[in-house]
Structures are given as structure tokens and as C-alpha cells.
Design brief:
single chain; alpha+beta; 2 domains; 3-stranded antiparallel β-sheet
């Protein structure tokens, strides 16, 4: 899996206010919603394919619980906004300190791989207390983070090293950097995969269906000799 993720915006999608150095900015990665006034995915033009995901940046002080639930309408003007036919599906949410871009006109797209997305969302082991983790980590990230950990463990990019004292998070070692990260414990059963496969497939990829085995050629019919005439 590898997608191009646009760099952080220079201003809030909600208020239009420009970000200042070191301000805390919340980023959402989501599949756009469908509104009643325009029954199509936001960003779609005519028969053009709609984007599978979009990034939205805003100040942490402007963040609202509704955004994590897929409703990105302005909370102060929601009554004037078109009703949603379908909410956006939020893949993940993270917070960073804003750094102004350098005026070097260089391409600033980020290769969105399973590995760097995991490193963005996972919490370095021991860096936060359990209380701080519960307050700062959005539960919306948990399914994606658990799925990424499973993928990376199979590819031997990370290795399970233990579990936290409270039993709530597994500890993984990132093999390239030897940094330890914590991932919430989850039950990755069939129901879990069925629930997230449709939404996460565009980000992390879905297993290719096995090609159907070619139908066996029918066996040639054995010619049956006509009985010899009986001599009278």
C-alpha cells in the first residue's frame, strides 16, 4: 500500500485562519461524506471518480466531537448546512505542532505507507501515562492501528515485545528504529475484518481474490461399438 498524502494545510478548513508556528493542529484522514443537496461524494465532478480519502486540518481549539464521527459541517452553522445522506468515514486523527513550510517550492507530498502511518498514530512506549493516553488518543484510530500492527508484524517490520501493566496495550518494537510503540489490545476476529475491510481497503489494500481454477475439460466420450449383427 502506498498513497500520496498532501502536506499539512497552511490554514484551518473550518475558520480559514492561518496556522501560526508551534500551534497544535488536528489532522483528519477521511473518506468524504455525501450531502442531501449534492448526492455524491464531496470533490466529485460529473463522472470523475470521487476521492477515496481527503485530509482536513484545523486548530485543536476548533476541534469538535462531531468531526471524529464523520460530520465535518461547521458546528456553529449546522442548521444552515445541507443534511448528510451519509457521514464521512474517519480513518484516523492525529495532532502535530505546526511548522511553517520552507519557500523552496519542493514537493511536499508524503508517501502514505502502512509503516509511516503506523509510526504517526502509535504512541511511543512509556512517553505518556495511561490517563494521558486515554485523554489524548482518539478511539477512532484504534481499528486502523490494530490492523496496521497486524500487517507490519506479518511483514516482520515490528515485533511483539509484551503488554502494558494494565493489560490495555500491546508493546511492539519497530525493527528499523528499535523504538517501542503501544497499540490498544483488540480482538481481530472475522467480524472485525468484515467491519473495516470496505473502508480500510483503499488505504492498506485488500488481499487479491484467488483466481478461479480453470474448469476441467470434459473427458472425451468413449465410443461404444455397435453390436455385431447376429447371424441367422
Amino acid at each position: 500500500m502506498e498513497l500520496n498524502l498532501h502536506p499539512i494545510a497552511i490554514k484551518s478548513f473550518l475558520s480559514g485562519r492561518e496556522f501560526q508556528e508551534h500551534e497544535r493542529v488536528v489532522s483528519y484522514l477521511a473518506r468524504p461524506a455525501i450531502s442531501a443537496s449534492a448526492p455524491q461524494v464531496a470533490g466529485k465532478k460529473g463522472d470523475e471518480a470521487a476521492p477515496a480519502f481527503a485530509r482536513s486540518d484545523l486548530l485543536e481549539s476548533e476541534d469538535a466531537p462531531a468531526f471524529a464521527k464523520g460530520d465535518f459541517r461547521d458546528p456553529n452553522r449546522r442548521q444552515d448546512s445541507p443534511e448528510l445522506v451519509e457521514r464521512a468515514f474517519v480513518y484516523c486523527r492525529w495532532v502535530v505542532g505546526y511548522k511553517a513550510r520552507k519557500d523552496d517550492n519542493s514537493a511536499q507530498t508524503l508517501k502514505l505507507t502502512a509503516e509511516n502511518l503506523f509510526l504517526t498514530l502509535a504512541i511511543p512506549a512509556g512517553s505518556l501515562s495511561s490517563t494521558e493516553i486515554e485523554a489524548g488518543q482518539s478511539s477512532v484510530n484504534t481499528p486502523l492501528l490494530q490492523f496496521l500492527a497486524l500487517m507490519m508484524e506479518r511483514k516482520k517490520q515490528i515485533k511483539l515485545r509484551g503488554i502494558t501493566e494494565d493489560g490495555q496495550r500491546q508493546i511492539y518494537e519497530h525493527m528499523a528504529s528499535h523504538q517501542l510503540y503501544e497499540v490498544p489490545v483488540g480482538d481481530l476476529n472475522v467480524e472485525f475484518f468484515q467491519k473495516i475491510q470496505e473502508h480500510l481497503g483503499v488505504l492498506v489494500g485488500t488481499p487479491k481474490a484467488k483466481a478461479a481454477a480453470p474448469a476441467a475439460a470434459p473427458a472425451p466420450e468413449t465410443a461404444i461399438a455397435a453390436p455385431a449383427p447376429v447371424e441367422s
